[in-house]
Protein: 5570_t:CDS:1
Organism: Racocetra persica
Amino acid sequence: SEWPDLTKELIQTGELTKEEVAPHAHLTIVGIVCSIDNDMAKTDITIGAVTSLHRICEAIDNISSTAFSHSRAFVIEVMGRNCGWLALMAAISTGADYVFIPERPPEAEKWKKEMCETLEKQREAGKRNTIIIVAEGAIDDNLKPIKPEDIRKLLTEVKIDTRVTTLGHIQRGGRPCVYDRNLATLQGFEAVKAVLQATPDTPSPMISVRENKFMCETLMEAVELTHQVSKAISEKNFRRAMELRDPEFAQGFDAYLSTSFMENKASLQGNHCLRIGIIHIGAPAGGMNAATRAAVRVAINHGHKPIAIYNGFTGLLQENVRELNWLD
């Protein structure tokens, strides 16, 4: 919007003539979002976020080994500014026991007691390690910051040996993962297409990804919506804050709750308890342990019995089966 005044100034100062300026009366800007926080509205993912998530998960996997061997709890602070995407997705990916994010803060008067009770039950059930992930912008519903050191002191009081780890800028560095390389390449391609199609009347676009499709959104509208998230949180309108994030964010939070906390719900089949068999067919593939874990916990939370079937259909015929529990 300042461009016309700048060109006029060049003419007034005699640096350029009207004829030289005439072909350049309009400046075309196309935005591509690079942010490890994944905090821009109107796009499902931003360049760098998935790579950063990889770094966090690798670090937590390493920390989990130490936590298990020493029966400790670790409180891990991750980046994200006022966005809890990194913390939430890391919690889902690593099976963290608790997560604190600014978009869905816990009740100020209850969260300390509820967290301690949950972790103590897990310990009584035989769990040796505890991982708690805290977004750097984490707050309670009274907007009071929740800091890792506060959580450590709280857990120490209930006799759980606890350490704090702040991952810091290790989350930002290193080589990008394959997803981010592809995303950046394809968005760069789309950006040039947008430049070539732009007219003086076209609002500056932003290249976004919505449901795995590249789209041109209005850049300033996306910026405005992004600012509204912080405003909604400051006004304690946390439902609105969740709505302003991409749909995957809210779905991910619900999935995390269903696979992290025992709810003891009645069966979805009208109190009819099903025995749900879980069987792996063919060669192993990365991620299947996580899929099995999710299936087991959701089944238990709905009142059903998950059954592990070992060694494929042959194992089923030989009755090589076992009922799985929450920690399996």
